[in-house]
Amino acid sequence: MKILYFSWVRDKTGVSNEELTPPVSVTTVESLIDWLKEQSAGHAQAFTDVSVIRAAVNQEHVKLQHPVGPDDEVAFFPPVTGG
Amino acid sequence: MKILYFSWVRDKTGVSNEELTPPVSVTTVESLIDWLKEQSAGHAQAFTDVSVIRAAVNQEHVKLQHPVGPDDEVAFFPPVTGG
Amino acid sequence: MIRVQREDFDFGQEVAALSAGNKGVGGVCAFSGLVREMAGETEISAMTLEHYPGMTEKALAEIEAEAQTRWPLEKTLIIHRYGRLEPGDQIVLVAASSAHRDAAFDACRFLIDWLKTEAPFWKLEESEKGASWVEAKDSDTQAQARWLEKDQED
Amino acid sequence: MIRVQREDFDFGQEVAALSAGNKGVGGVCAFSGLVREMAGETEISAMTLEHYPGMTEKALAEIEAEAQTRWPLEKTLIIHRYGRLEPGDQIVLVAASSAHRDAAFDACRFLIDWLKTEAPFWKLEESEKGASWVEAKDSDTQAQARWLEKDQED
């Protein structure tokens, strides 16, 4: 699974993207976050408050309940501030 | 009194502006129109339907009840179509 | 700033002036109106814009001043042409710059809505059928009325 | 048309392309957003726009397609820059051309409102205090919500 981080989420994880293989129990964005938090102190800090985290699966905005699979590209970032 | 006509109002009166001296009984735009209608067949035709006539006194939009005096500049035209 | 002129104008250059040298501007909204080839089913060959010199400038200055009162704006601009124009030609440009986009958008739309019912311009369209004066649109009166209704709500 | 680029753009030239050679266009509405010098009380020296390559283009294309569905438009344009920008620099341009001004205005505002909440861009502001990520504004979410409410009314 390809995971990307943007803005301060990346600043906290310390990595902009990584190729990971979560266990089969990880089936949604939400459970992916729980698993990622265990990967490093930085990851744990990035996902301390999930209410300020937004996610995209395969480059589409999704809710945290959205399913994820091994071939997905999943991105985490704060609410967007372009324009 | 300086009177100006624009658009099809001018086409009908046949004159773009004229210097006139209405009788003292002409005290409003409305009474001015009634008097102007007597000045020529063209004027009469221009003011056949006053509901489609708009007026300005001294370059400000006014209602037909607005007062007019000898030193005023009065203009008649259809609803504007700029922009 | 307002300008009433026969000459064409450079949209980009005019709009650039609304933010040039002013780092307090966060947004610029601009609208330009052009001569369309078709008026309903009729193909237009040209259009002549007549106006009321003196009153036109006065009316546009009042509209601009009203916008400046209603919104926190940096600059506003109204350019309106008169004379003979052809399809594709620019007729009018309105623009507003502000720290915030809502003010820029609202003011820009206000400028064109009010201009359409307040500024003394009249369009004479030429087609194969001859020349005829364009009739005022109810939709323009309604567009202005929306602003007046909002005033009453406030 | 959408473009995501590091380079600056020529506002006038880009907007001119929305009506060039199309005599069915009656109005063009354009909005550009610029880097402001002040963010609240803080003076900004620069701003870096990060984005999500791939998703950005997808999101902008979807926003543009949605506007084309909602209004009768001739052309639409979204240009968004990324990278390091300074106060006074252009960040974004949205524009729409249509036979009628209401459609041009509504679509233009829709483009910027939706872009602000849907397109994956993040701003990092630099000031004397250091660098900090700009927080999303409630007003932007509300601006998008207005369009969703209108949908429900229809």
State the main characteristics.
heterotetramer, A: 83 residues, alpha+beta, Ubiquitin-like (UB roll), 5 strands, C: 154 residues, Aldehyde Oxidoreductase, domain 3, 5-stranded antiparallel β-sheet
Provide a quick synopsis of the model.
The complex is a heterotetramer, with two copies of chain A (83 residues) and two copies of chain C (154 residues). By secondary structure, chain A is α+β, with helices and mostly antiparallel strands.
CATH superfamily of chain C: Molybdopterin biosynthesis MoaE subunit
The SS-based structural class of chain C is alpha+beta
The total tally of domains of chain A equals 1
Question: Roughly what is the average pLDDT of chain A, rounded to an integer?
Answer: 98
Q: Please state the second-level CATH architecture of chain C.
A: Alpha-Beta Complex
Q: Could you tell me the mean pLDDT of chain C?
A: 95
Number of helices of chain C: 4
Helix content of chain C: 25-40%
Could you name the CATH topology of chain A? Answer: Ubiquitin-like (UB roll)
Largest sheet of chain C: 5 strands, antiparallel
